[in-house]
């Protein structure tokens, strides 16, 4: 008992891990492949006598020959000791207090080694760790990371990789393995289940059997994760460049049904399956070829058929098309945002893109030019193109807009659809204030 207490106080934990210091000749990470800002951050900290390492996903990706998306640095300096060493640095975070160091265009996340004393940490009823700001040793910091391949530290000074949990060997075997008892680690933070699936799909790793086994049983714990965190993780998953692969794997691991309304929509919905598959494939392709992707566009696409279905249900109850569409948007976004906090900025853009769709059907008078002037025209047109490609609206409608937007004024005028249709005049007589149709031509 006393021995255990002493070990704990000294930060020795239950089982000391076999640390390996691997020289550059064996790991082959080239300094020149590492972000200058990350190197500079480590250099400044080390010059002050602190230890500092590039850590986590960046080291893993460099070892796999993948360009890291972002860089994390781990240090024994406290956040308040880190901040004054850099001209542009911000203290952020509540669950984890970290420093964002901004150098040039890059932001490096600098975190202080954390203790893995999860027994002492504040938790919810299911074992989820609520706050985790106890600082510790590098060894403890390694143990509280999620997967062995994410617990590798690169020292830019010695160019060694420090490996506490056999991450290098796992990478060689292309295996994703949880550090410690997988079930406990998922309970501490259920988002790790989504991370396992995302990283495995993105990097082509196999999830180790004991890491994989508890996921199906624990999937429901995702319910207790704050919606803002789930949103961040879903966004990472959808923007990983491997969204389709990730989603297939989520389904295979039992992480789809009933866990998140968004996943139900994406995976279980036969209605818009072709549309959603196309949207995801397009996103994956754009990310792989380094073209920009708009999260608002993607979320709008994922939820479009929900909005359509809700809007049609309202029209069937005699609501007019435009108000029906508006109400359907509210309905769908309310349901989604309960579990997944899609940011306001995003939902505003999604509404614009959705709301503009019926306007593509109006090709008379001044209306097409007014639509062209909208700042969201490009995104809304791309959305229309996706609808056409999935067979929801005629290809001819998309082709018309593809030509119209680049045509000269005379050609545009000649393209307009005559405004004298008898159908429209009849409708005007019946309902003088009727709004334009929101229905999609099918
Ligand atoms: P990517 O940046 O490609 O999404 P990553 O592994 O770098 O993957 P980050 O969110 O950038 O993911 O996290 C950086 C590091 O922090 C991870 O490599 C891991 O060591 C640690 N980490 C992140 N999230 C968790 C978590 N939920 N539990 C334990 N450790 C985590
Ligand atoms: Mg990262």
Word description of this protein:
Among the domains are: 17-179, Beta Polymerase, domain 2 (2-Layer Sandwich), CATH 3.30.460; 278-415, Orthogonal Bundle (cca-adding enzyme, domain 2), CATH 1.10.3090.10. It is 50% helix and 10% strand. It has 23 helices and twelve strands. Strand 9 and strand 10 form a beta hairpin. Bound molecules: adenosine-5'-triphosphate and magnesium ion.
Give helix % range. Answer: 40-55%
Task: Please tally the β strands and state the result.
Answer: 12
Most strands sheet: 8 strands, mixed
Mean pLDDT: 87
Category by helix and strand content:
alpha+beta
Oligomer class: single chain
- The termini sit apart by 73 Å
Q: Under the CATH scheme, which class of the domain at 17-179?
A: Alpha Beta
């Amino acid at each position: 008992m006393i021995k255990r207490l002493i070990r704990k106080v000294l930060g020795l934990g239950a089982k000391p891990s076999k640390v390996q210091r691997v020289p550059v000749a064996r790991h082959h990470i080239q300094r020149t492949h590492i972000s200058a800002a990350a190197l500079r951050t480590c250099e400044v900290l080390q010059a002050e006598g602190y230890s500092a390492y590039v850590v986590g996903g960046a080291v893993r990706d460099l070892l796999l020959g993948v360009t890291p998306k972002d860089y994390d640095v781990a240090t024994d300096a406290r956040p308040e000791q880190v901040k004054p060493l850099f001209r542009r640095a911000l203290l952020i975070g509540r669950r984890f207090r970290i420093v964002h160091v901004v150098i040039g265009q890059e932001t490096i996340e600098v975190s202080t080694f954390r203790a893995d004393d999860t027994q002492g940490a504040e938790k919810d009823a299911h074992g989820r760790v609520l706050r985790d700001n106890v600082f510790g040793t590098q060894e403890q910091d390694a143990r509280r990371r999620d997967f062995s391949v994410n617990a590798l530290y690169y020292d830019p000074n010695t160019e060694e990789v420090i490996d506490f949990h056999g991450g290098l060997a796992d990478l060689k075997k292309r295996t994703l393995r949880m550090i410690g008892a997988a079930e406990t680690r998922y309970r501490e933070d259920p988002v790790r289940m989504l991370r396992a699936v995302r990283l495995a799909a993105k990097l082509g790793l196999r999830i180790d059997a004991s890491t994989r086994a508890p996921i199906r049983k624990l999937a429901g714990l995702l319910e207790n994760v704050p919606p803002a965190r789930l949103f961040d993780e879903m966004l990472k998953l959808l923007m990983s460049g491997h969204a389709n692969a990730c989603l297939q794997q989520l389904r295979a691991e039992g992480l789809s049904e009933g866990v998140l309304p968004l996943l139900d929509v994406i995976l279980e919905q036969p209605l818009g399956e072709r549309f959603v598959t196309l949207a995801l494939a397009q996103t994956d392709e754009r990310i792989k070829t380094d073209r920009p992707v708009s999260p608002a566009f993607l979320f709008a696409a994922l939820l479009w058929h929900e909005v359509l279905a809700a809007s049609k249900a309202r029209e069937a109850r005699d609501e007019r098309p435009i108000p029906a569409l508006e109400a359907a948007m509210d309905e769908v976004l309310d349901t989604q945002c309960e579990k997944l906090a899609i940011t306001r900025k995003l939902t505003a853009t999604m509404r614009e893109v959705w709301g503009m769709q019926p306007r593509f059907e109006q090709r008379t008078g001044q209306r097409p030019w007014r639509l062209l002037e909208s700042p969201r025209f490009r995104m809304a047109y791309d959305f229309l193109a996706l609808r056409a490609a999935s067979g929801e609206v005629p290809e001819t409608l998309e082709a018309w807009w593809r030509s119209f937007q680049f045509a000269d004024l005379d050609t545009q005028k000649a393209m307009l659809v005559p405004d004298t249709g008898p159908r429209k005049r009849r409708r005007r007589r019946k309902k003088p204030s009727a709004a334009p149709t929101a229905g999609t031509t099918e």
